[in-house]
Automatic annotation (TrEMBL):
Keyword Methyltransferase: yes
Annotated InterPro entries: Methyltransf_25 (IPR041698), SAM-dependent_MTases_sf (IPR029063)
Domain (Methyltransferase): residue spans on this chain: 7-80
GO molecular function, one term: methyltransferase activity
GO annotation (BP), single: methylation
SUPFAM superfamilies recorded: S-adenosyl-L-methionine-dependent methyltransferases (SSF53335)
UniProt keyword list: Methyltransferase, Transferase
Name of this protein: Methyltransferase type 11
Organism name: Curtobacterium luteum
One Pfam family in the UniProt entry: Methyltransf_25
Length: 194
């Protein structure tokens, strides 16, 4: 919503209706056009900037990742910018995601017990299983997702193959240097001219 302004046409895309509802309620959310979908649903209108946040790149599998980058390139004007973050695999953040114990918090539905487990199932792929138990009803829900931890060289190659140039990778959104222990890698690239 920070990008929304009087002279800006901002479009937000997410495959989750719940996330879109939450985004609409945020300050400035009413100034954004929201689309339920993914990169295939972005209207074919020229854009100056494509921004992916929330480590969304890790939630996109390899085949869809290549398509997503090509879709974004197709709507960007020559010289337009794509920018996104992805967790740095060298920092191995998932090792701290497995809960030693369970935590409980109060929700509108009563006390909720939470725990998670993360396991590297292949090089660059981490399976995260997040579990929630509603204490009052003893109902347990578990969500499992395989997250893709792409390294620096792989991200640079993928972005270049999709039609971007001047690819830079930083250790944060302030363009700080990428170090081995940087929690994220921020990729910024320009769309190749026609």
């Amino acid at each position: 919503m920070t990008l929304a302004g009087v002279d800006r046409d901002v479009l937000g895309v997410d495959p989750s209706a719940t996330m879109l509802d939450a985004a609409r309620r945020r300050p400035g959310g009413g100034s954004v056009s929201w689309i339920l979908g993914d990169s295939r649903d972005v209207p074919a209108e020229p854009r100056d900037l494509a921004l992916m946040t929330g480590n969304v790149a890790q939630h996109i599998g390899d085949a869809a990742w290549q398509r997503t980058l090509r879709d974004l390139r197709s709507v960007l004007v020559p010289g337009g910018t794509v920018a996104f973050e992805s967790r740095n695999p060298a920092a191995r953040a998932w090792e701290a995601w497995t809960s030693d114990g369970r935590s409980t918090r109060v929700t509108a539905a009563g006390p909720l017990e939470e725990w998670s487990e993360a396991t590297e199932i292949a090089p660059g792929v981490v399976r995260l299983v997040a579990s929630n138990r509603f204490v009052d009803t003893d109902e347990t829900l578990a969500y499992s997702e395989d997250l893709r931890f792409r390294g620096h060289d792989e991200l640079v190659c993928d972005v270049g193959a999709a039609g971007f140039e001047a690819v830079e990778v930083f250790g944060d959104w302030q363009r700080g240097p990428l170090r081995e222990d940087s929690p994220v890698m921020v990729v910024v690239a320009s769309a190749v001219g026609d």
